[in-house]
Each structure stands twice: as structure tokens, then as C-alpha cells.
Amino acid sequence: MSDDVIPLPRDDSLPGTLPEFTRKFSSDNACAALLRRWKYGEEGFRCPRCGGRRAWFLPSRRLDECVSCHKQVSLTSGTVMHGSRKPLRLWFLAMFLFVVSKQGISAMDLSRQLGISYPTAWTWLHKLRAAVGTRAKTMLHGVVEADETWEGGVERGLPGRPTVGKKKALIAGAIEVKRKKGWGRLRLQSVETASAASLGAFLHENVAPGSTLLTDDWRSYRRPAKEAGYRHIATNMKTVPEGAHTVLPGIHRVFALLHRVLLTTHQGAVSRKHLQNYVEEFAFRFNRRSSASRGLLFQRVLSAAVMRAAPCYWEILGRPDPDTPLWMAA
């Protein structure tokens, strides 16, 4: 079952290559026409004041002005583009570049290709990650592998299991095992601890009751599996000389790919504060790995960008806006 549980308009003519994209979205008016279709649906514009169905578009301000009562409505309000002064065609190109590469694009590369500053490129990518991360998702079912992995490198000389901190982050993962060869959908989440409470919350949110859950023998999986009614098959990895990757091959392959992407595309510069957005982006790409249409992937990102307002720059940083008066920030 697809994660896209909300019916969305579909446009099979969306571009699949960069030359096609350049031809189709060469102007802000062309971008605005598609954005309006996604925002208002097939019925088109409806004035919130008088209910009018006809409007003029004011490109310089990105406003739809009602023909009847002249009320002006922002085309980008409630989307990831809200408040941005950059041309719509640059935003659309950023979305296209966001999906055209299977391993993603770094803020530095996006900055160079679009001719925008690094902080702007970094903010745009975080807004897009936040948008795809909040898309509606269906629960995994059937046979599901689950495990956890650490990000942040090896810390030598420390006994026992690592702990979450400035240098270490814990990621829980679950992936469907297909009846035939291969794997299905993936879910990833940054968690605080490997406790039954943290891992249990992740499993209960992402794996449907009655599923068959394959894990190692870590004790934190036992109680959550029993509470959710999973058919739990736990393997003591010490009894498997070939290694854990032979018992849970799907999720271990995912973790290996995730480590590679974080170390190459993002050069290991992912902070724990933003890690969830990065793993959501990775899962979004992985779950669409067999898609042959870049245009369809662009459509998915565009739908998420239109339907969900993204945090502003200062919200992403987790700091108060310095231009906000103190009485408003209180």
C-alpha cells in the first residue's frame, strides 16, 4: 500500500529530465499555474470573501486578486515557499534537484547550482525535508525486521553500549520483508534511548498489530512486542557466527546505505538536532527507489511542499528571531 493515502491530482506530463524541466517551468507564471492547481484542486480558485471563481495573478507579489471583490490572496501562504522573495522557478528547480539524485543533494551543491547563498540553500533543504517528513504514512505490516543503529562514529575506550549525546545518535529502523525476494517500505526515527519505552513507541507508531516482528534478542523489544500483539521472533546474535546481517539483512543493508549517504553527500556534518529530517528524507527516497519517473517523485515533493507549511529559518535553528520584539517573544 502506498504512503500517499490522501488523493492528489496527477499530472503525467511533469518533467523527468532537466531539459524537460527547463522547458516546462521557464517562467514564474508557468510555476504559478501548477502551484495554483495543487493548492486549490481541480475546482480552481475560490475567493474567501465573496466566493468568486475568477482571479488575476500578480506575479511580482505572488497574489491572486479576485476579479469580483479585488481581495488579494497569497499563492504561497501555507506552503514551504511562504515568505520567500526568491522566484518560484528557483523553488521548483530546488525541488527537482532534491529528488533527481538518488543520494540527495547537499546545501553547498544546491547553492552552487541555483546561485543562492549557502544559508538560503540550507534552509530550503530543511524545509523540504520537514515537508516530506510530515506526509501521511500507512503502518508497516506482514513480516517486519526491526533494529537500531548508532550514528557518530566509534568512541574508543568506552565500555558498554554507547549513550546518546553530542557525538552519538541512536536511530531505530523497521522494514517490511516481501514474500518474494526483496524488501518493502521503510521507517526510520531518531530516538533518545534503546529502552522499551523509546523503541516501543517507535514500533507501535509504525508497525501494525498482528505483524511478525524479527529482531535481535535485545530485551527492550520483548514488552512492546507483547503489548502490540506482534508475533515476535528474537534471535540471539551471539549464536549466529555469520553475523547479524544474515539474520536481519534488510534493515542492516538500509543502515549501511544510510551511513554512506550521511558520510558522502552530507560529509558527516549532520547534527543530532536535525537528524530526524535527514532520516525522513532518506526513507522517502528509499521507499521510492524503484520509481522510474523522476517527474512522479517531483510531484510527490511538490504536493508535500504545497500542503504543509514549513518552519521558518529561526525555528529550524531552534533560536528566537532577533527581529521579534521582546514583548512578542515572551
Q: Multimeric state of these chains?
A: single chain
Main sheet: strand order: 6-5-4-7-8
Q: Find the count of extended strands (DSSP E, 2+ residues).
A: 8
Query: Which structural category fits the helices and strands?
Result: alpha/beta
Radius of gyration: 22 Å
Q: What overall geometry do the principal axes of the alpha carbons give?
A: elongated
Describe the SSE topology.
Blueprint: H1 18-24, H2 28-40, E1 55-58, E2 63-66, E3 72-74, H3 88-100, H4 107-114, H5 118-133, E4 143-151, E5 169-177, E6 183-191, H6 196-206, E7 212-216, H7 222-228, E8 231-235, H8 244-247, H9 249-264, H10 275-286, H11 294-307, H12 313-317, H13 326-329
Parallel strand pairs: 4-7, 7-8
Antiparallel strand pairs: 1-2, 2-3, 4-5, 5-6
Give an overview in words.
By secondary structure, the protein is of the alpha/beta class. It has 2 domains: 18-44 and 76-135 and 292-314, no CATH class; 143-153 and 161-274, Nucleotidyltransferase, domain 5 (2-Layer Sandwich). It is 39% helix and 15% strand. The protein contains 13 helices and 8 strands. The protein has helices spanning 18-24, 28-40, 88-100, 107-114, 118-133, 196-206, 222-228, 244-247, 249-264, 275-286, 294-307, 313-317, 326-329; strands spanning 55-58, 63-66, 72-74, 143-151, 169-177, 183-191, 212-216, 231-235. It has a 5-stranded mixed β-sheet, sandwiched between helices. Helix 7 (222-228) links the parallel strand 7 and strand 8. Helix 4 (107-114) crosses helix 5 (118-133) and helix 6 (196-206) packs parallel to helix 7 (222-228). The model is unreliable at 4-9 and 324-330 (pLDDT under 50).
